[in-house]
Amino acid sequence: ALQLRGTGNAAAVDFDPVQPRPINILSGSSAGRTTFVLRPENDLVDEIDETLTLSVVSSPLPVSPATIILVDDDAPPTGISLTVDDPDIAEGEATTNITLTATVNGGTTFARAVNLALAFGGTATEGEEGDYTLTGLRSIEIPAGQRTGTTVLTFMPIDDPRDELNETIEISGTSPGIQVEPASLLLIDNDESLLQLTAAPRRLREGDSPSTVNVTLTVRTGTPYDQALDVVLELHGTARRTIDYNVTGPLSLQVPAGSLTGSASLTFAPIDDTLDEPEETIELIGNAGFGYTSTAVILLEDNDIPPARIFLSAVPDTLQEADPSNTGVTLTATVDGNTAFSTDTPVELDLAGTAVPAVDYDVGGLADPLIIPAGRLTASREITIAPIDDTLPEGVESIIISGNSVVRVVEAEISLIDDDGEDLTISFSRSEYDANEYGAPAEVVVTVTPTADRPEALSLSVVLAGGAGPDDYSGVPDEVVFRPGDDSFTFSVEALPDDHYESGEAIRLRLATLSTKVTLAPIPAATVRLIERRPLEEFSGELRTVLALSARAWSDSIQSTLEERFSRARQTEQWGGWQPDYQEPSPPPVTTAAPTAFSTAPGHPDHIVPGDWLASWRRKNERRNMGVIQPRLSLSKLLAKIKSWRPVLWAEGNSHHFSGNLRALDYQGGFQAAHVGLDLHSGKKTLLGASLMRGRSLIDYSDGETLDGETRATLYSVHPYLHVQASDRIALWALGGFATGPVAVRELDRNHELRSFGRLVGGGARFLAKSWDRRQLAVRTDADAAWIGADLEEASATIGGLAGRLRLLAEMTQTLRLFGQTLVATGEAGGRLDRGAAHRGAALEAAGRI
């Protein structure tokens, strides 16, 4: 029995459990086979590819296990975002607890727990001499498979007497190979200076020409000082003097005695660098030597385009398996473009490619990231890649060094040149082929890679399986020969027809080299299945069932159509009587005028009725020739007689679908039909007519093991029918049917063309139990029997399927008048008894229609 085991992180959460299945190797066979379904769980966790091991729990001989690679299809998360539950804290407030949340971006999660180291920056300064102090863990963890993680930080703002701008606390996180979007808190100042310092303009741009900034100091109290006030200007902020800008002019100003304002002019010259930087600040702090200070802020905007890519390159980019001592490789990371990063930028390194680490080469120096210093465009480091000299012919393999950083990293590739030469790889193009006794042979293709550069011959042996013998096939050569320039060898295996049916026949094809100069890896064998045709008479039982299903569908189609016709007839009679579309004309008035020759007066022998000129001419001719007028049927009376039957030409289409299981045979199918008919009414109580039908059926069937078939039938049929309203409460009806048409049967890989014919008879009665307020309660019973047969020419026999049914139903009818039209709703329920080759037994059924 099979047992499925997982290695690494593979567990029951990664795939549905697999029930043990036996594998039997039959006597005389070299292999056994079983089939099972492995359903991986489609989660949203970014995981490594996992390995599942298939082993046999009990066997008289040792069995080597097989492996299945469970490949993860989830894209890695795009990054992590940090957020806070409260956007600001204020000077003068008590201790404030802030909940920090880390959220995974994208639609997937990490397969392992991710721990972020937290760092705190911004314009606010941490510490007793700064703007705030902090307690709490300086890290946050997102559990494996989860989208979020949280931690609580406790901030204690320091209440100083300085009038400052509102400052920011930026909370950032770092974890190898993961891009983290920081969160920000606003620290609101609660002090108001006696002096107010302003600067205009308030925004400068890197690369612009020098700009004059007017700095003004204003006394807020509105009362001037009685002596001059000297103010020293200090330069602070994230922008650095002589690195991001230069300034000229006096860094001081004076408010004269008795005045409320003082000013000074400074010239700022932004320095145009090639660093990608965020927007920076130049803070002018005016210190008057007493009381509060005041600050004016100038914003310095960066003009550099951010880098979009980092290129990795390796020198040398080719290594020889034959020279394992040549191990030194210089790996360089280069920023694309002329703009550098303003901070140190790490590049996490990883390996890929067709060459396998520790199998084809050993590597060292990739564990730590390659860091591009701030302001630099390149960074290099020596790594070691030592090829492993084996004896396997592998060709040229690739070693791909990939990276992960804040921007996309373009990988570097190193070619590993094999020194063992190329040998031939030979295989069958498929593991299984099919050869049909009465169909196409199996085209077996043996391929060689690379293209043969010398003659090469391989022996081809045959192992019989599943009862196959030498007389069951032909076309297998003794040798497979590749000539120079060949890349394949093709031969045809034919399944030879016989007069008996045997399932599961097959032959196994094995290849072995005839040359002692060539060493080949084991070549997997191929199987040719010999598909035999089962004689039609051997599955007559299944065919009888399928024909009975077609008969049932044929009967249901015409029954549902005629029930509609009969229901309309009953409704017309019961709600006001059948109203003829044609009314007999009133007799013409009698005249006493004396007839004259060729008179057109009514009653005169020569009177010409419109449309009856032929009969009038014949009467006159006979009177002249014989002197006697013989009675004749006039055309107008014949037309009136036909109209009195009130003919109605109708057409209808319907579709039936069905499925189920009969006698271990699963089936599903459908029947679509188009009907056209003619109704005739004799008096007010009798409806008779006939209809024509063209129907198409398609039924698929299978026993779940060896039998798999399909039937397609086209039926052409005629159906006479009669409905009689025997009394006010009792209605009777009867119908018949005759059908014929072609039937196509496909069983396994053989098609049979048959001619079908059918018979249908049915009838029923309806008793009106109660009628009130345009409602009716009735009891209806009907019975029908349908039979469809087919001629089996190859067996000189006829086979048919019968479907019979008896029903007893209670019927409730409600009639409404809506917008001048009659709306009739009918519901029915009851029991049924089925007999025949299709369904058997009793059942309940219910239906409704409007």
Describe this structure as you would to a colleague.
- It contains three helices and 55 strands.
- The chain is mainly beta and 850 residues long.
- It has seven domains: 1-74, no CATH class; 79-188, CalX-beta domain (Immunoglobulin-like, Sandwich); 195-301, Immunoglobulins (Immunoglobulin-like, Sandwich), CATH 2.60.40; 309-417, Immunoglobulin-like (Sandwich), CATH 2.60.40; 425-533, Sandwich (Immunoglobulin-like); 563-579 and 647-849, Lipocalin, CATH 2.40.128; 598-645, no CATH class.
- The strands form twelve sheets. The chain has a ten-stranded antiparallel beta sheet, covered by helices on one side. Strands 10-12-7-5-14 form a five-stranded mixed beta sheet, with no helix packed on it. A five-stranded mixed beta sheet has the order 6-15-13-9-11, with no helix packed on it.
- Strand 53 and strand 54 form a beta hairpin.
- The radius of gyration is 49 Å and the shape is flat.
- It starts with a strand and ends with a strand.
